[in-house]
Amino acid sequence: MNPYDFTCPGFRAAGVASGIKGDGALDLGLIVSDSPTNAAAVFTKNRVKAAPLTVAAERVRGNSIRAVLANSGNANACTGDGGVSDAENTTWVVASLLKLPPEGVIPASTGVIGQRLPAENINSAARGLVSSLKPEGFVEFAEAIMTTDTFSKISKRIFSAGGCDYTILGIAKGAGMIRPDMATMLSFIVTDAPIRKDALSKALKGAVEVSFNAITVDGDTSTNDMVILMARDDAAFKGDVDTLAAIEDKFRENLGSLLVELAEMIVKDGEGATKMVSIKVLGAPNKRTARDVAFRVANSPLVKTAFFGEDPNWGRIMGAVGCVEGDFDPMGADIYFNDLKLVSGGVGNGIESERAAARIMKNRRFDVTIDLKGGKSTFTVLTTDFSFDYVKINAEYRS
C-alpha cells in the first residue's frame, strides 16, 4: 500500500508504537487539520459508553475540531471518572504540543474493556507522534488503530465541483463486535471540501445509515463506536451559495460511496469469516419491518453457521423471519440464493434446488433474498458466517 496514494490536502497524520500493545506494534495515531474545520460525529447507541466517547461527544458539539488522537489495545471503557481524566489528560498533552486548545482534540480508543488507559505511555510517545505528522501518514494511522483486524481499511474519493477538485479520505477499523450502531468500529473521515456544519451532519448520518449501520458480524454493539468527519470550514470559502450547495451535493454522493466501501471492508475482515452474505428483504410493509427481518436473519447463529457449513438450510431462515412481528405473513415468503428460487410461499422447491443452492454457497460471497410479499419496502444487510476461528479468536482475546 503506497502511503502517497492516501493523502488529503490540509491534513496530516501519524502512527507510532507507544507500548500499549506491548509487542512493538503501532498503537497510537494522530490526525491533524492545518486549519479550522467543521466537524460531525456519530456515536454508539450502547448505553455503556467508553470514557473517550463521553469527552468526544461534548467537544464535537461546540468547538472547532482540529485533531483526533486514537489508540488501540485499550478501550478505556468501564474505567469510571479516572478513565475520563485519562482521556482529557492525553488530549491536553497532545494539544499543547500542537499549540491547540484541548477542546479541539477528539480522543478515541479501542481494545480491551475494563482496564485503565496507560496514559503515561501515550504522553511519553506524544512528542514523537507529533513530530511524525506528515501528509502521507494516514496509512500508518490506519495500522495504529487495528485490533483483531487482519488488514488496514483506508480509501478515498476525488470529485469535482464548482471548478475545483476535492478529496475525501476515510479510514476505518473493525472486525468483531460489529452491529449497529455501529460496534467496535472506529472511522475517521477528512475532506478539503468546504461543507457547512448542518450539511456535514446530515450527510454523515445519511451515509452511516446505509453503510456502517447496515452491516453485522456478530450482533454485538460496542461501547466505543464513533465516526468522526472533519471538513474544511466553509467560512473560508469565497464562492457563492449556489456553488457551495453544488459542492455539498457532490460531497454527499461520494461520502456515501466511500463509507459503503469501508463497511464492506469491515465485513470482509470479520473475525474468522469465510463468507460475505448480502441479506436483502423485499416486499415488507414498511422500512422498519424490512430492517428487522434482515437483521434477524443476518444475526441468527443458526443461519450463520449454516452459511459456514455451506448448508442451504432454508428452514433456519424461515424460522428467523417468523420471529419478527409485523404486518406480513412469514408463511408466504419466497427465498432466493442469488437468482435461484429455493423457497416458494414458505415451501421448499425440492432437493435439486437445495443442491444448486449448496453450489452457490461455495462462493466467498453470495446473496440471500427474502420476498415477504407484503408491501414495497426493502432493506439490505451485509453479514458473515460463523466459523470455528470466530470462537477461537474471541475465546483467546485477552490471553
Describe this structure in words.
By secondary structure, this protein is α+β, with helices and mostly antiparallel strands. It folds into two domains: 3-268, 4-Layer Sandwich (L-amino peptidase D-ALA esterase/amidase); 276-395, Ubiquitin-like (UB roll). The protein has eleven helices and 15 strands. A six-stranded mixed beta sheet has the order 13-12-11-14-10-15. It is globular, with a radius of gyration of 22 Å. The two termini are 31 Å apart. Catalyzes two activities which are involved in the cyclic version of arginine biosynthesis: the synthesis of N-acetylglutamate from glutamate and acetyl-CoA as the acetyl donor, and of ornithine by transacetylation between N(2)-acetylornithine and glutamate. Belongs to the ArgJ family. Heterotetramer of two alpha and two beta chains.
* Ends distance: 31 Å
* Helix/strand order: EEEHEHEHHEEEHEHEHHHEEEHEEH
CATH homologous superfamily caption of the largest domain: L-amino peptidase D-ALA esterase/amidase
CATH class of the largest domain: Alpha Beta
The average pLDDT value, as a whole number, equals 92
Q: Which second-level CATH architecture of the largest domain applies?
A: 4-Layer Sandwich
Q: Could you describe the largest sheet, including whether it forms a barrel?
A: 6 strands, mixed
Number of helices: 11
What amount of the residues lies in strands?
25-35%
Task: Summarize this structure briefly.
InterPro entries: Arg_biosynth_ArgJ, ArgJ-like_dom_sf, ArgJ_beta_C. With 399 residues, the protein is of the alpha+beta class.
